[in-house]
Amino acid sequence: MKKVVVLLVCVVIVLVGYVVLYKSGIELPSFDANKAYKQGIAFHNNKEYDKDFELYKKACDGGEMLGCTNLGVMYEKGNGVEKNEQKAVELYKKACDGGEVHGCTNLGVMYEKGNGVEKNEQKAVELYKKACDGGDMRGCYNLGVMYASGNGVEKDLGKAVQLFKKACDGGDLDGCRNLVVMYEKAME
To answer: What is the pTM of this model?
Structure first.
């Protein structure tokens, strides 16, 4: 009897979770999309770009937002496809809107530099913040650079230090390096 109750509770929890995700508009990737993404990584690591392109496309079309981000990188860099920064922006936006924080960081870089989209440092700051808040340490680092330089946001060295520290604590070596530089300057 206890096993039946536990099983029913588990089923109810799963169903409630799916209802919450459905109402929030978040799409879960299919198993095939996730599998395609993982296979794409293997081909990418071997620089077999013709094979990983199809797998990333399948993953992205199936709702695996990391597939969209990686497909965007291929278009941005011209790896296995003709370089197309506008298409990269499209894919990064899809990934970011789908909650994939690396896509947000990459989209922020495109706005910061004006690659494939009109340059907009304020938009870059928003995207880096979204990425950082979502746990992408590269987003935290990039946001720290924006605060340190005063690009797209009012210059705030204290905020820059906080962001570099967060990035460093999260394993971003550039964040660590900039944190050391900021501390050295403060001691001069």
So the answer is: 0.79
